[in-house]
Design goal:
288 residues, alpha/beta, 12 helices, elongated
Length: 288
């Protein structure tokens, strides 16, 4: 029996995934094979003629089969990269997106001149936003809230993996029903809340619609439920002059979200675009 080489596996597996509708089938194949061989993608390219052992082939096929069923690559690998750091991922929480890195970058700028900043991260999921901020700001203290117990456990793993347990406090909490009891108000509230209307479900990629938690994707109404709630509670969470920074679903929501916060009397409202040029973040300030 002829031995499979790295290049043979890549070529055949790319075709197999593409036949099953997997986007970026070549790239995903390379990531999966690199994981099994414990190489980075550069190392994989340098090893094109390397034979694959039977045990490696078995391990790779198990991962490939999962991806062929359209399970997200990040779930199959068990991690993703966010702000240059490894974040553990699973079906318990939303996969961190590159667009959310912009939120972290802007949050760090907002906190730059505050000596000992205090932050609330609502709907922390994997904990990626809180972790991204905490790794770059040595003095920050973050309260990370999450309604899902399973997501909270995943966030705890990520916080522990980055040795941030003293900087990030995790709490299971339903922000739509009540408010956290704070010893002090905070300087910044951040969130990437559920903002998709259920009417959009049928048009979503299978990886998202079938494998990511609906509680983290959809609200119970028109996609604006959390923003209305935030506009209501921010005066009770923020210090006078405190800031907020939230992700939202794009241009179709931008005007409505601006109106929500404007009507609530919040100031310095500004929309920021994502890497593709679409409106993605709203920022503003609470002035007493």
């Amino acid at each position: 029996m002829a031995l499979w080489r790295v290049i043979d596996i890549i070529q055949e597996s790319e075709k197999w995934l593409a036949e099953r509708g997997v986007p970026d089938s070549r790239l995903d194949t390379e990531y999966l094979l690199a994981e099994v061989l414990r190489l980075d993608r550069v190392g994989l390219y340098l090893a094109f003629d390397r034979p694959i052992t039977e045990s490696e082939l078995v391990d790779f096929r198990a991962l490939l089969k999962r991806r062929g069923k359209r399970e997200p690559l990040q779930h199959v690998l068990g991690y993703t990269e966010f702000m240059g750091h490894r974040i553990l991922t699973s079906s318990a929480a939303l996969i961190p997106r590159p667009e959310t890195e912009i939120l972290v970058e802007q949050a760090l700028v907002m906190l730059k001149n505050i000596a000992e900043p205090r932050v609330i991260d609502i709907g922390t999921g994997t904990g990626c936003i809180a972790i991204g901020i905490a790794l770059e700001n040595p003095k920050v203290k973050i309260l990370a809230l999450e309604i899902s117990g399973h997501a909270l456990e995943l966030a705890r793993e990520n916080v522990a993996a980055h040795d941030l347990s003293e900087k990030i406090v995790l709490s299971q909490f339903d922000i739509l029903k009540t408010l956290p009891k704070l010893q002090e108000r905070v300087d910044l509230v951040v969130s990437n809340p559920p903002y998709i209307n259920y009417s959009e479900l049928s048009g979503m990629q299978k990886e998202v619609a079938e494998f990511e938690p609906h509680q983290a994707l959809f609200d119970s109404d028109d996609g604006l439920v959390f923003y209305r709630r935030y506009a209501e509670i921010l005066p009770r969470l923020l210090n006078p002059g405190g800031r907020f920074l939230f992700e939202f679903g794009g241009e179709h929501q931008a005007k409505a979200i601006l109106n929500i916060f404007m009507t609530a009397g919040l100031t310095e409202l500004e929309i920021t675009n994502d890497y593709a040029g679409h409106p993605r973040l709203i920022r503003g300030r609470y002035t007493s």
